[in-house]
Amino acid sequence: MAQRIGTSTVLLESRPSVLSFAAIGGKKERQGPLGALFDATSDDTTFGKATWEKAEAQMQKLAMETALSKASIRPEAVDFVFAGDLLNQCISSSFGLMALGIPFLGQYGACSTMAQTIAAAGVFLESGAAGLCGAVTSSHFCSAERQYRFPLEYGGQRPPTAQWTVTGAGAVLMSEHKPEKPYLSAVTVGKITERGVCDAKNMGAAMAPAAADTLAAFLRDTHSDPEQYDLIATGDLGLVGSRLLRELLRREGIELSGNYRDCGLLIYDREKQDVHSGGSGCGCSASVLCSLILPKLAKKELRNVLFLATGALMSPTSVQQGSAIPCIAHLCRFCA
Amino acid sequence: MKRSVQEYEKMIEKASPSSPGLKNCAAAFLCGGAICAFGQLLHSLWLPLFSSEENARAAVSVTLIFLAVLLTALGVFDRLAKRAGAGTLVPITGFANAVASPAIEFKSEGFVLGVGAKMFVIAGPVIVYGTASAMIYGLLYYFALRLLGA
Questions:
Q1: Does the beta-carbon distance from A155 to B9 stay under 8 Å?
Q2: Which tens digits make up the pLDDT trace of A104-143?
Q3: Residues B48, B98: one domain?
């Protein structure tokens, strides 16, 4: 049975397994350092669809279908799917996964969605309510730009603190414990954190305190320290946010060393690909998890990983009204 | 974790790379200047074709707007503007791009609620406040003339 420890950590004693996973990316993602690790990438950022929203939905569908086919599982066998994205009313998830006919629970955690959906799937499996669950999320540069910022062809400049929304999707298929498969051993649910940052062009800075808060809570709850993990990966703090996370934690007496990475800095070559502070979006942490981290866990090259996806919970309306950006970070501990 | 907002602001400032101000200004100066020089060249070309100075000036604006919209539609303008910054934003080219780009982007929502409604989403404020300040200036000018005349 799940055991709640400390303030906000849940230990999953049944150790739900990661049965299968898939990462889908766009053209820019293929050109990045992880390009060859994606299950599928498309040169055509429309994914053969008429609108960017439909393209993003298609990516989610592709991600889920690929994860299912890698495990030779039919969609009917999946008990529940947890999915979310950045678009208003999470339409990429509902439109993308509709055809699969799996009982669906929509989630919104902005760019923390991958960790949120995995956590929800893990607890469902732990409770015995399900034997097989999916966790899916996506983001698309073009659909995010038109919703949050400017039209694609608008001629503007981005500040060096801005991040580039990843065109990508990730799907994780989880089941009751299976030997030899990586498993989810704990989750820490983050608190909504806000430190007065109003600048939507510096999301890393807005999200860093949430990441620091959740990581500190997990370490406190489990009486562990960062050195004990093979990898600590934040979702999309980028260059600015990961610098701030190190600094915030240092002031709390927690030192992040060489085992710390940020998915937003792993997915692109920051200098060559002109992405300023790095990648962002639900698809950032999702596709890095499914293309780089989970495969390494499956091969036992990594055995003890903290995956800490970060999300900024503002909307264009709240930003225009001058409200500071509330942020969140959820943590999943994977073992192999 | 009880850091004050001001203290965190200082941390952000230290962690954030700053915009290359000098480089941006130089690029804006050169590109903006080049667009204006090109406008002057067009003016010299159009003046013999159009009967008056006023018509030639209008033709220059029309040509620059056309070229900016064409480059926007071809997906070139945003790449140029990324480097030129205010150099392409301040001349009439920036205004043309600000109208054309949402028109292209929101075509997927149809011609009425997409193109029609969203076309002025960026340029709208410029029109509103441009017209409002012109009215205020006109009123001040009118009363100043009356006062000075009397």
A1: no
A2: 999 999 999 999 999 999 999 999 999 999 999 999 999 9
A3: yes
Fold of A3-175: Peroxisomal Thiolase; Chain A, domain 1 (3.40.47)
The verdict on B77 and B127 lying in the same domain is no
Q: Is B17 in contact with A52 (Cβ distance < 8 A)?
A: no
Which two tokens mark B4? Answer: 């004050």
A161 chain-B contacts, CB cut-off 8 A: 16-17
A187/chain B closest Cα distance in angstroms: 21
The Cα A179–Cα A72 span in angstroms is 17
Name the H helices within chain B. 5-15, 21-49, 53-73, 77-84, 86-89, 92-105, 117-118, 124-149
| φ, ψ for residue A229, nearest 5 deg | -105, 145
Domain A183-335 superfamily per CATH: Stage V sporulation protein AD (3.40.47.40)
Q: Are residues B55 and B73 in the same domain?
A: yes
In this structure, are residues A334 and A184 in contact, taking their beta carbons and an 8 Å threshold?
yes
Residues of A near B (CB-CB distance < 8 A)? 50-52, 146, 150-161, 195-197, 202, 205, 209, 212-213, 216, 239-240, 243-244, 247-248, 251-252, 277
Inter-chain Cβ pairs, chain A and chain B, closer than 8 A = 98
Which of B11, B17, B101 minimises the CB distance to A154?
B101
B110: closest CA of chain A, how far (Å) = 12
Pairwise CB contact (< 8 Å): B11 & A244? yes
Let me know whether B79 and B137 are in one domain.
no
Q: Please report residues of A whose CB lies closer than 8 A to that of B80.
A: 155
In a domain? residue B44 = yes
Distance CA A152, CA B45 (A): 34
pLDDT digits (tens, 9 = 90+) for A160-192: 999 999 999 999 999 999 999 999 999 999 999
DSSP-assigned letters across all residues of B117-137 = HHTTTTTHHHHHHHHHHHHHH
- 0.90 exceeded by the pTM? yes
